[in-house]
Every structure is written in structure tokens, then in C-alpha cells.
């Protein structure tokens, strides 16, 4: 393994808590109805519709994993994280500025809201472990392979309908202060950096894939990703599906309904997921994935150089607009605001990242 540069986020030896999983994402949306129709095509089920808010769930749980809330602009409101230890929950309640609610914001479980260094509200929901259902594979045995034909005399079944979403898998956040935010998630929730990507010239770390520390229990390779960004924002969210067929079926349905594709189908390098990205009506990326890596707490942090090709091992060519490297007025104004407010922002790092993200992995393809 390469030497970890000194300014990288690291696993904390004494975190304030060990959280268990990502619970939900809350989004403000100007047009709630079009967003709601989109996410039903995407594969989520509506579980509660009240004035100004629609809650959705996947198939592995009766708890919400997606909250769309009426707003005057499209933006990220916050996220939720599950915790199973009452002792750890009490620790988090004692953090200055923590807001405790006996009945959580979007379900009935006790919740404490913290604020990450960028000011994003993070609801920590105390929930018994047995309350979380473990998804079971239901389509086992449908693949014929050389010497093995579990589908003898049967054609492949096909149903034209939205993908069956199992659960919310991960969210990727862009942060002006990369190290400060990444370290906060490690120290507050005991998250482990599964892999870190560094820039080729300066060797500055710019992306960290964080997993929850469940000891011997397997965790997703990443549930939260922190990446350097010009503005604090949500880059994408990803939902787990059963298998490649389900990913492809989801793609067929969304394209057939006239929705905008993002990038896919392919397989990521770090995390290994088979992925397919789409854009919701606001333009935000959302991902269907299957077959992601699962690690226990024993796997050490990997360090890798970042470039456009490091995002996938195979797949469709990445569209030019997939990584938003534009310097819009809005982003520049956010950057100036951040610098003026005294944030530790490295402009040379952001510029090197922009340069790296614009280089095609296949030079014969003109982006
Ligand atoms: Fe992803």
C-alpha cells in the first residue's frame, strides 16, 4: 500500500459513536409533483404524502429512505443516520448545538440532530438493530451458466416496470473543506476510510469513501463519500438493487418514460458496484447499483491516484457533462463566500481536481 499522505482522513481510535447505516436523505424541491412522479419511475414506493412532504421507501424496510419537501428551490436539506447503541446515542446528545427530539423528524424513533462542519443537519436516529430488515435475494438461480441450468426449459422472464429498489446505499457530498468534514464523520460516527483518492501532482487527498464500522458485520464499502468541491452540495445518491438484470430493467423503464440518463451501465473500480446513473427533474444524479463490495472493519484504507478512468473498470464512456467541472457564477460566488467566511479552502487543489476531471481516459474520444 502507498504511504498515506499526512493530511488524509483516518479512522478514529476513540470516536464519539459507532453508527450503523445511512437512513435517509431530505431534499427540498420546487416542483414536488414532478419529483414524486420521477422517483416512482425510479423505483421508490410512496409511503406517506402530507401537505408539503412526500416520504418514500425501498423494498427492504417500512421506514422512509427518501424525503421530498416543498421548497422555493432545489436543494439538499439534510440526511439521516441510524445508530443502534443507546450509550453512543447518549454521547451524541451531549454535543453542543445537538437538538434532541423524542419523536424523530420523519419517523417515531428518538433522534438527535447534529450539524457537520459545513452546517448540514445530520439526524441520528436511535433504532434497535432488529428493526432493520436484512434484504434477501429473491431471484436466486435464474442464471444459467456452463454446466448449470437452473432455468432449464424456461425463457428468461421479463417484466416492464420500474426497478425494485432494495434500500438507500450511499450519498456523495461535495465539501469546500474536505479534510475537516471527512474527519468529522470519522470522529463522530466511527466511519472508516475504505479508500482515498489523491491528486497526481500535489498528492492532496480529494475523495474519501467512508464505511460504517460494524466490527465483524459486513458494511457497504461506502455509505458516505466526501469529495472536495467548489460549493457544499449533494453530488449524487445511490440505491441498491438486487442484480445486474434489475439495474438494466430500471434503465429500460426510465428511458422508456422519457427520463434523462446520466451514465451507465458500467462497473466502478472503488466499491466495485455495477452502476447506472440517471438525472432527476432537477438535474441531480441518482444511481441504481448492484453487487457492491462489503467490508468488515479489518480491511485497511487504500490510497489511489484520481483520474477520470479511476471511476470505473468497464462500461459505457462517461459523458462529458457527467462530472460537473464548470465554473458557474453561482459556484464562484459560493467559493468567494466560503473564502470570505474564513473556511480552509485550497483553490490550487480545486483547480488541479478540475484539470484531472476534464482529461478523457480514452483520448480518441472527443469530449
Ligand atoms: Fe455512487
Automatic annotation (TrEMBL):
GO molecular function, one term: dioxygenase activity
InterPro entries: Glyas_Bleomycin-R_OHBP_Dase, VOC_core
UniProt-listed Gene3D superfamilies: 2,3-Dihydroxybiphenyl 1,2-Dioxygenase, domain 1
Keyword Oxidoreductase set for record: yes
Domain VOC: 167-291
Record keywords: Dioxygenase, Oxidoreductase
Protein name: Extradiol dioxygenase
Natural source organism: Leptospira selangorensis
